[in-house]
Every structure is written in structure tokens, then in C-alpha cells.
Amino acid sequence: MRRAVALPSAARVSPLKAHSRAEPLWLKWSLIGLALFFVVLLLVLPLVTVFYEALRAGISRYGASITDPDALKAIGLTLGVIAIAVPLNTLFGVAAAWLIAKFRFPGRSLLISLIDLPLAVSPVIAGLIYVLLFGRQGVLGLWLEAQNIKIIFATPGIALATTFVTFSFVARELIPVMQSQGREEEEAAVTLGARGWQVFRFVTLPNVKWGLLYGIIMCNARAMGEFGAVSVVSGKIRGLTATVPLQIEMLYNEYNTVSAFAIASLLAALALVTLVVKALLEWRGKLEAKSQS
Amino acid sequence: MNITVENVSKHFGTSKTAALEHVNLNVESGELVALLGPSGSGKTTLLRAIAGLEAPDSGRILFDGIDATERAPGERGVGFVFQHYALFKHMTVFENVAFGLRVRPRETRPSNVEIEKRVRELLKLVQLDFAERRHPWQLSGGQRQRIALARALAVEPNVLLLDEPFGALDAKVREELRDWLRRLHDEIHLTSVFVTHDQDEALEIADRVAVFNAGKIEQLGTPEAVYDHPASGFVYHFLGRSNALPDGLVRPHEFHVSSTPRPGYRQGTLKFIRLVGANARLEVEGEGVSAPIEIEIGKGQLEGELTPGAAVYYQPHTIRTFPTTN
Fold first, then answer.
1. Closest by CA position to B74, among listed A201, A105, A198
2. Chain A hits for B73, Cβ within 8 Å
3. How far apart are CA B57 and CA B50, in angstroms?
4. pTM across the whole model
5. What is the dihedral of CA B44, B47, B53, B58, to 10 degrees?
6. Residues of chain A found within 8 Å of residue B148, distances taken between Cβ atoms
């Protein structure tokens, strides 16, 4: 709010003058220019290119690329993998964040490190670990084969690798939110007779809902785009174990640029939607935090 | 309901000093007891142990003679009021107060109409019936604490436990709320235990005061008893300002003062004098006393003219000595 109080004379200068006093105009504009240049070069141009290449051969070709049976299979597989990985990581993330934020127990710092592990390990290595563990030559390979369970080069392996890579997102988002929340509201609920799940459902969860949604969105975006770990465990069997990013790569390697970019445009569009939702969530969260302070 | 704390001890983590060390306390039905002590003396830990929010390492807590040590907080019939209110931020005032009734199992849960009636009654009791649709952040600190109290009372507890309930409030609101709580207690006679580090608060509203020091109850008694007959130097110090003279401890108001020598009076130098309302506050440098002596007497009792820097004669009329003064 503006106040009708006279400012000290030093502060009573025009905004432009105040800035020019802090740093020269040429510096300001060249820094802004540089930042814009990189944004356009690294973010905007590629995004435009994706849509340009996808639509270059006309809208009917674009539609045909997307409705190609293999492409549809890939989209279906990616959606299926997300339907496994995101709920799993949401459950795990909420539980882990709750434990870490609200309790002190032996092994707590180990758990924190483990949550960060998937971010530190290269996805390709993560994929390889699963191959070495569950593959035919792997530690559990023979036993799994005897049970007729196929993990590597099949959907379970892809889901597993994706879950591993996106393991951290929900937990990392929730831990600081839950920590800042403290224990008091939950203790109040307990003394009022609420049972464990009621405390969680009516007190803990509503307090972290924006952080949780944000974490899920980020986890989802990462799960859809995962390439490295999945490419190792999938075996890239077209129409069977190829997810959307793998399908794009295969098409691209076959010089089928239009189809590759057409499918890529789906992922790009999803990224844009994610950005918008993320911005909305941040805005809502901030608004609520502001009104409660 | 009668509360008995039996030989309760509690350690936190690896710290060597105990938060509670073999504490015994009996709170009579309908009584208002204050747990008074400096921070870290164990008073809040004991309150939380009574509520079931903290499990004692050893000892028992009994409600009406029945062991409740293993009972969950929600099954003890206690209402707990937190220092920082701990209201549910995302709920309206109404929903906050209704919470304890809404989470009951279906068999014992009142109907919506009954809940509404009960919540409105309580909001009227805490004089906040106009605020039922508001959220906690739209209320002042004092109002929030009254809502927290209404919420705790909604479950019809047998015991009311308050953890520094006025600690986060400013002085004026604090006093108002303190008086209001005392009147409320006189009306509903709910067995109540409250924690405070403010001796005035404890002495003013409690039926009995338990003075805590380093995990133990140093003294338990009526406000008059602990103030007039402190059991130790610690209690004496904690309950009010005091001066350490070579022959014992004296409160600021326990002096005679004169500007001329008198038999039995000691000599000192007046450092400072200030008239505050009906009283005069003096700071006197005395012989054999390291810190300046604080004296407070009624203006009418000042004999002669006192000027800073001049000699002044004082006589303590009540000196207390304790075997060990800490």
C-alpha cells in the first residue's frame, strides 16, 4: 500500500534515475539481451522447431503419424507406466516425507540420502542395475525365469526403471513443507480423539496439498519423458516395449523426421501444460500462505 | 477428575540431565494447578505426559486412581491448549471447534444438529459467536487462543491442560484472558493444569502452584504458601525479585529507609531513585553487597529528603535464609 508520508529527499527520484545510478544502462540492457538470447536459442527455438517439423508435411501426415498403430502402442505403454510409477512414488513420497519431517529415528539420515540417490545416479546406470539384477544373466534371472516372470525387456522392467528415476520428486517436495508445518496441529487433533488416518486425512494432507500436487506433476512429467533407464531395460521392441521417447528415437534414427517430431510434439505439449499447471499451483500456494501469515 | 502423577521420570535422547526426575503430583478434582518454572525445567514435559503426548520412561499417571499411563491421548478425556494455538489453519472457526465431535466413531458421534448446537454454545462461551465462518488467520492472538479453548472444551474433557496458554500474547490481552480463565474455571470447575513461566500469572489464578527446577518439583503449595514460605532459595528467587545481603535474602519491598542514621539501620549510598505511581524505587550501594540493592517502598514511607549520591540508611525487616542458595 502506498503511504502519504514524505520520502527522504534522496529517495525521491524517478525510477529510471534510481536504476541508472545503480548500474549503467548499457550493462543492464546487454545482460537482459544475453539472457533473452539464451532463452530463445535453448528453449524457444527448439520448441518451435518441434512443432514446425511435425506439421511440415501437412496436418494429415501429422495425424497419421500419431495414429500409427506403433505410436498408439507407445503412447499406451507410457500411460500405463505412468499409472504405475506415479501412484507408487506418491505413496512412497508421502510416507517418507511424513516420517522424515515428523519423527526422529535411527536411519533417518540414511533414508534422506536414499531419497536423493536416484537424482545422483545416471539413469543409464539405474537401468543397467536392473538388467544385472533381473536379466537372464542376472542374479535373480534364473529364478525369475523358472517362475515364468519376465521383468527385463517387458513392461514391469520399464515401470520399475521409471519408478526408480522419479523416486525423489514427491518426497523432496513434501519434506520442507511438512517440516515447516510442525507437529502441533497433529498433536491437537490427537488429543481431540482423532485416529491416525483421520489426523492424516483431515490435518496433515490438507496442509500440504499444494506441495503434494506440485510434486506429483513434476514426477509425472519426468516419468513421461524418461529415456535413459528405460532404453536399457526395454529392449526397444517396437509396438511392445517402446515408450513414447524410445519410439521417437527409433523413428528419428530411421530418418522418419516428420513422424518423430509429430510424436515429440505430444511430449512438448505436455511439458507446456505441466508448466502452466505448475505456475498455477505455485500461485495458489503462495496466495494461501500469504493469507495465513 | 483427580490426577495422580506417580514417580514419573523422562529423559530426552542422549542428554544426561533428565527432563523429569521422579516427579510426584496430585491434582484434586476441580482444582486449578499451575506448573511454574524456568524454561527447560520439565513443566511442559509433565503436562504433555499427563496428556499422553509424551510417554514417561518410568512412573505412572492415574486418572481417578485408574492407571492411564498406556492410554492414547484421545482416550484420556483431556482437553489440551497449545501455546501457539495449533488451530487447523485450513478450517473455519466453526469446523475447528467441531473437529473433536466430527472425528468420533459413528456410534458416539452426535448428529449434525447437535454438533451445531454444541459449537454455537461454546463460541458464545468464549464470546466469539460472530466469528464462526472466519478462518484462524483472520483472528487476533487472543481470539485464536479462545477458539483453541473452545475446541478443547468441545469434547467435554474431564481435565483441561494448558501449555503456556497466554505466552504468545501481549501484556494487556494476557491479563484479560488470565482473569477470564479464572472466572471460567470458577464457573465450570473443570480440573485444570496450566504451565507458565510467569510467576504473577501462577500466583494470581492458581489454587496451588508447583514450582519446577531442573526436572523436579521444588515446592508445591497455595500461592500464599509458596510466596510467603518458600522452601528453597530457588523458589524464593523465582517468585519475585530479591536482594542477596550478607545475612540472607530480602525482597525489594521488605526494607525501611531513612535519610538520617537510625539505630539498627545500615549505611549505603543512594545510586538512583525513581517515583513510579504510588511507589518509590531505589537503588542503593551497600557495604559488603556486590550488586546494587533494589528497594521499593511506598512514597509515604520515605523519611526525609533523598538525593542520588548522598548517604542513605536502610534496614531489612524480613530476612530469609536457606541452607543452600542456588
1. A198
2. 187, 190-191
3. 13
4. 0.78
5. 100
6. 188
Query: Residue type for A143, please?
Result: W
Please name every residue paired with A144 in a beta bridge, in sequence order, or none if there are none.
none
Per-residue pLDDT, A21: 61
CA B215 to chain centre: 16
**Cell 527522504 found at:** A8
Output the nine-digit C-alpha cell for A260.
Answer: 518423430
Q: Are residues A157 and A78 in the same domain?
A: yes
* pLDDT tens digits for range A22-60: 778 899 899 999 999 999 999 899 999 999 989 988 899
Cα angle value B280/B326/B56 (rounded, 5°): 115
- Cβ–Cβ under 8 Å, residues A171 and A97: yes
A1 located within any domain: no
Q: What residues in chain B have per-residue pLDDT under 50?
A: 325-326
For residue B326, give how far its alpha carbon lies from the nearest alpha carbon of chain A (Å): 35
Of A187, A191, A207, the CB nearest to B90: A207
Tell whether B82 lies on the interface with A, counting CB pairs under 8 A: yes
> Do residue A42 and residue A120 come from a single domain?
no
Per-residue burial over B255-268, b = 16 or more CB atoms within 10 Å of its CB, e = otherwise: bbbbbeeeeebbeb
3-state SS class at B49: helix
| Same-domain status, A40 and A120 | no
Looking at residue A292, its pLDDT comes to 63
What cell was used for B104? 468420533
Instruction: Classify residue A125: in a domain, yes or no.
Output: yes
Q: Are A221 and A267 a contacting pair, CB within 8 Å?
A: no
Using a CB–CB cutoff of 8 Å, tell me whether B12 touches chain A: no
| Cα-based angle A101, A107, A113 (whole degrees, multiple of 5) | 75
- Whether A95 and A34 map to the same domain: the answer is no
Same domain, A80 and A221: yes
pLDDT for A224: 92
Percentages helix, strand, coil for chain A (3-state, rounded to 5) are: 80, 0, 20
Q: B60, exposed or middle or buried, with CB in 10 Å at 0-12, 13-18, 19+?
A: middle
Q: Which three cell numbers stand for residue B14?
A: 542422549
pLDDT, tens digit, for every residue of A66-78? Answer: 999 999 999 999 9
Q: Which structural domain, as residue segments, surrounds residue A271?
A: 61-292
Contacts of A189 in chain B (CB under 8 A): 88, 99, 103
Say yes or no: A78 and A27 in one domain: no
Residues A70 and A28 in one domain: no
**Cβ of residue A191 closer than 8 Å to a chain B Cβ:** yes
In tens, the pLDDT along B176-194 reads 888 888 888 888 889 999 9
Q: Is A175 helix (H, G, I), strand (E, B) or coil?
A: helix
Task: Return phi, psi of residue A135, to 5°.
Answer: -70, 175
Asked whether residue A214 falls in the same domain as residue A233, the answer is yes
Residues of A in contact with B100 (CB under 8 A): 192-194
Query: Does A12 map to a domain?
Result: no
From the CA atom positions of chain B, what is the Rg in Å?
24
Nearest to A193 among B53, B82, B103 (CB): B103
Closest residue in A to B100 (Cα–Cα): A192
- Determine the residue among A104, A178, A191 to mutate to test chain B binding: the one whose Cβ has the most chain B Cβ atoms within 10 Å: A191
| Residue/partner pairs of B112-118 with CB below 8 Å, 24 or more apart | B118/B154
